[in-house]
Design goal:
CATH class of the largest domain: Mainly Beta
Keywords: Transcription, Transcription regulation
Helix content: 40-55%
Protein name: HTH araC/xylS-type domain-containing protein
GO molecular function, one term: sequence-specific DNA binding
Strand order of the largest sheet: 1-2-9-4-7-10
Structural class: alpha+beta
Strand content: 15-25%
CATH architecture of the largest domain: Sandwich
Organism: Pseudovibrio exalbescens
């Protein structure tokens, strides 16, 4: 796969860019933007984002300094950063296109923890407003991530691994030190990460309480609850419920288990409660979800 030209953008992304301006995608972390004429706007987000410029035409203004953003370059935007941007030359035939990729705190923190021995001890040299050319491995990763957004099935099953792959290459790039500064696990995050690793295998343990999880994290129950939700966007019990339902769905689809069998396997004592919560999360009952999957 070659990812090196504006033809790549036109071929793969045209169907994802029906609107002028912002376009939502099948992955909530990713938004795409198409501009067909001159436009001024501010890059400012409440959470860290990776901004990927998929075509020429963008520039950033930092006081008297102007940064040009060439195609297939990127910059890491923290929650405190604001860049005044301008779309210069763009048209309907050759629009200016960029992607905004929100960086999930849990995924980034876990990845940096796993890579702690592999990351270079480089200083944070990422200047605000400056973009950096993506190297070939990162371009390939971004290309795969963008390509899988075209179908719901690819987005569901492939996007999470490609998303993590993009963050992996970002961590190894010139902006890796800034990523570490934003997401490097402190003592509190390390404690919560210990709990997250435990929950990957112990999600079916109905005896595991929030108080026990807080003790494992070496935190008070109230502090653990707040810190856990800041990383996962869910309370501990909501997170466990989400894991159980996802695992149960996988068991029904891959191993042919019935709804009640899957429910008990993942720790539910009530099949009816499982069915209610399954429908609330997935929008379909367990039997409807199995039928939908078999029709695909």
């Amino acid at each position: 796969m070659t990812v090196s030209s504006q033809e790549w953008t036109a071929e793969w992304l045209a169907a994802l860019l029906p609107l002028e301006g912002e376009n939502r995608t099948r992955l909530p972390q990713i938004r795409l933007f198409r501009h067909s004429g001159r436009r001024d706007f501010s890059l400012s987000e409440q959470e860290p984002h990776l901004v990927v410029f998929l075509s020429d035409g963008f520039e950033g203004h930092m006081g008297p300094v102007i940064h040009r953003y060439p195609a297939l370059s990127c910059c890491l935007l923290s929650a405190s950063d604001t860049i005044e941007c301008r779309v210069g030359q763009a048209s309907q035939a050759e629009p200016a296109i960029m992607a905004m990729i929100r960086i999930d705190a849990r995924v980034a923190s876990e990845l940096l923890l796993e890579m702690s021995q592999e990351l270079p001890l480089a200083p944070d040299g990422a200047a605000l407003g400056r973009s950096y050319d993506m190297d070939e491995p990162m371009r390939h990763s971004v290309g795969r991530l963008m390509q899988c957004l075209r179908t719901e099935r690819d987005a569901r099953f492939l996007a999470p691994s490609y998303y993590r792959e993009v963050l992996y290459h970002l961590a190894l790039s010139q902006q890796g030190a800034k990523l570490k500064r934003l997401f490097q696990a402190n003592e509190k995050q390390q404690g919560i990460n210990r709990v997250l690793r435990l929950l990957k295998t112990e999600y079916a343990n109905s005896n595991l309480t929030v108080e026990e999880m807080a003790r494992l994290a070496c935190m008070s129950t109230s502090s653990f609850h707040v810190g856990f939700k800041a990383i996962t966007s869910k309370s501990p019990l909501q997170y466990i419920k989400s894991i159980r339902l996802q695992k149960a769905r996988a068991l029904m689809l891959s191993e042919g288990l019935s709804a009640s069998q899957a429910a008990y396997r993942v720790g539910y004592a009530s099949a009816s409660q499982f069915s209610r919560e399954f429908k609330r999360l997935f929008g379909h009952s367990p039997s409807q979800e199995i039928s939908r999957f078999r029709r695909v």
